[in-house]
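User: Predict the structure for this protein chain, please.
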Amino acid sequence: MSAAIWRRAAGAGLGMVALGLLAVLTGLPLLFPAIGASAALMALSPDSKGASARSCWLGHALGALIGWACLQLLAGGAGHSLAQAQAWPWVLSGSLALLLTVAALLWASIPHPPAAATTMIVGMGLLPELWQVLALIAAATATAGVAWVLQARQRSPAG
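Assistant: Here is the predicted structure, written as structure tokens:
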């Protein structure tokens, strides 16, 4: 495998290690599957619009906030484990969150599919607290920032 492949893979993996370290040190939910999907998308298709720092940050922020609003509206803000969330209030909340998030992403031209997982994680009550939602957005901000730096470096003549 080429050095370029290893650089991309290392950028994704080391970014998750950094978020994981911050999560361990702070106790905040900064490392979650959807953010890993974002890192993979950025490594696999760095030139696609969906892999841009803007799409990552806005996609996850919209998804998290829409998911939280749906959870408040349809499930009273109650959180559960994934096994317990398989009841109508959380199924409807997660489903409506996905519908609204996809509509918002299409309307705003923000093609970031991992945001769909974020909205369902929040909308189904897996991370029901507002502080947890803000932590997800912080993780997306950090991931987008790293992506922006790495992508800018790859585009520079010296990169």
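The mean pLDDT is 92.
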